[in-house]
Amino acid sequence: MTTLIETAEHKALRDAVAALGRRYGRDYVARTVAEGRPPTELWAEAGKLGYLGVNLPEEHGGGGGGITELSIVLEELGAAGSPLLMLIVSPAICGTVIARFGTEDQKRTWLPGLADGSRLMAFGITEPDAGSNSHRITTTARRDGADWLLTGRKVFISGVDMADAVLIVGRTEDARTGRLKPCLFIVPTDAPGFQKRAIDMELKAAERQFELVLDDVRLPAEALVGDEDAGLLQLFAGLNPERIMTAAFAIGMGRYALAKAVEYARDRTVWKTPIGAHQAIAHPLAQAHIDLELSRLMMQKAAHLYDAGDDIGAGEAANMAKYAAGEACVKAVDQAVHTLGGNGLTREYGLASLITAARVSRIAPVSREMILNYVSHQTLGLPKSY
User: Fold this and answer.
1) What is the phi/psi pair of residue 300, to 5°?
2) How distant, in Å, are the alpha carbons of 240, 282, 317 from that of 380?
3) Residue-by-residue DSSP string for 314-351
4) How many Cα neighbours within 13 Å face the side chain of 136?
5) Residue 123: which residues within 8 A CB-CB, separation 6 or more?
6) Beta-carbon count within 10 A of 42 CB
7) Rounded to 5°, angle at Cα 45 from 39 and 46
8) Residues in the chain with pLDDT < 70?
9) Contact by Cβ (8 Å): 173, 166
10) Cβ–Cβ under 8 Å, residues 204 and 279
11) Among candidates 201, 244, 249, which has minimal Cα distance to 361?
12) Residue closest to 71 by CA, chosen among 4, 13, 121, 116
């Protein structure tokens, strides 16, 4: 059963993370973007306080919680104007996959560093021609004695310049059928044959995007994560947390924009009346708040299902949460900018850049159209056109 009322521990976590986020705030993030560097100070402090690894096992330096707790961390940082995009990637996707399917050596090697922030891992699935369609991925791994040789290309891979390794989704040949099946490999960013190129993005963010070229990157046998025959299960064990955390990212951003608009609408006076007293201003802001709250409920449901081990139920809820949160975020940001009028486009108020940033939650890691495909086929049982 989904818990709708948060525990005292969860409320305390929200308050503590919110306080950390406010100490840094939107000005800090804007400064790191202007300087062209990642938010290392916030990342390090969040790690020291134990927030980066709340979802990872206690025996490996984590907090022993789940995606429920990690989503709280990201949402509250976002609501304070200082979200950490790599929370989605390093502890949520990579940490979860290694914790669930990694060998004991992989867990000992990676999880403590991922939990305290001293190590960071990126995630590489998207390809130029396949997007995130795991069935069309062309990055392949072939055996060479006891080693693997990995060849392929990846695009829009976040934070590679910050990462010690990338969890790469490749494909290997099934010896029984000859068909290719997905597998996950830990690839050090300093491995020979591993090349990265920064993508020139119109959207400016503290975390940069990269194209990767893997040219016969030689990996030891122990670079393979989990069972070679269970790659798809392992892959989706990481993709469901990715969708849940993207929802948290979007909800936090929407809450930040909405709070700025509400504050402005209370104070801005025209014709002796605060503009927030007018229903044309008040009602759209109220609607934005309702949409964000509804999105959070679905996100919490998805997180609880995932943490309870219901991967199938979590898959449906995670997709719905990501869709709802993306839509709510875009509408909240749009209404916030509109509420401020011309001021909404000034650097002083810091909302204009969110117009572009909010759209990311509609596009990545999976588009809203593909989520609608998922729901129409998997939930409603409608036939496919492809």
Assistant:
1) -65, -40
2) 20, 36, 14
3) HHHHHHHHHHHHHHHHHHHHHHHHHHHGGGGGSTTTT-
4) 8
5) 89, 93, 94, 157, 158, 166, 167, 238, 242
6) 23
7) 85
8) 1-3, 131-135, 174-178, 230-231
9) no
10) no
11) 249
12) 13
b/e sequence 216-249, b meaning 16+ C-beta within 10 Å? ebebeeebbbbeeeebeebbbbbbbbbbbbbbbb
314 contacts 240 by C-beta, under 8 angstroms: yes
Length of the chain: 386
Euclidean distance between CA atoms 212 and 124, whole angstroms: 9
HSE value, Cβ hemisphere, 13 Å, CA-based, for 108 = 3
Alpha carbon of 229 to those of 142, 149, 224, 234, 340: distances in Å? 14, 18, 11, 10, 54
- Measured at the CA of 312, the angle between CA 225 and CA 385, to 5 degrees, comes to 100
- Helix, strand, coil distribution of the chain in percent, nearest 5: 55, 15, 25
pLDDT in tens, 355-375: 999 999 999 999 999 999 999
Taken in order 312, 234, 164, 141, the sign of the CA dihedral is: negative
pLDDT given for residue 237 in this prediction:
81
Please check whether residue 321 is in contact with residue 299, taking contact to mean a CB–CB distance below 8 angstroms.
yes
Q: Report the pLDDT value the prediction gives residue 1, as an integer from 0 to 100.
A: 43
Q: Which of 370, 73, 119 is closest to 244 using CA atoms?
A: 73
Rounded CA-CA distance 34/38 in Å is: 10
Q: Among residues 351, 33, 21, 44, which one has the least CA distance to residue 206?
A: 33
Global pTM value: 0.95
Q: Which of 93, 110, 106, 112 is nearest to 157 (CA)?
A: 93
